[in-house]
Design a protein that fits this description.
63% helix; 0% strand
Length: 154
């Protein structure tokens, strides 16, 4: 069983990540958010530039950096303020939960450890061998995911 404080922390973080999961299917506009919003509210490069104290060419460069993914979070926050908007920043999990992510990784490690251990052992009954291996992998997965050892993410 996982330590209660660790479990509570995981639950708290999972709760914070949950609202972002609805955005999983959303994609960034082709020209980036800054350009899309600026154009949609009919704000010129000059007007946005004045609000963030850069030239129209600077705004164009900024939009290019956002499109390429090289813009900083602080710069996006600043542009957001100039557009009277807030930047929302977070991660969207590729798993159903943090616990699922931990269990998947633990399972990968457990399988590797068990197969290394059993590769040196030969059993005559291959079917029994598979069942025993699967059972041992499940047990090892539970053990690793419960204890969350330091090597979990190596």
């Amino acid at each position: 069983m996982r330590i209660l404080s660790v479990q509570l922390f995981l639950d708290k973080i999972q709760e914070k990540l949950a609202p972002f999961s609805a955005l999983k299917s959303e994609t960034r506009p082709e020209n980036g958010w800054v350009n899309t919003i600026r154009v949609s509210i009919k704000m010129s490069l000059r007007q946005l530039g004045e609000r963030i104290h850069i030239t129209p060419q600077g705004v164009k460069d900024l939009e290019k950096r956002e499109k390429e993914g090289t813009i900083t979070i602080n710069r996006l926050k600043e542009v957001g303020r100039a557009l009277d908007m807030d930047l929302v920043y977070g991660f969207i999990s590729r798993h159903n939960s943090l616990e699922d992510m931990i269990e998947k990784r633990a399972s990968e490690i457990a399988e590797e450890l068990v197969l290394i251990k059993t590769s040196t052992t030969k059993l005559e009954n291959q079917k029994k061998y598979s069942q025993e291996i699967n059972k041992e992998i499940l047990h090892k997965t539970y053990e690793i995911s419960s204890k969350m050892p330091s090597y979990l993410w190596d």
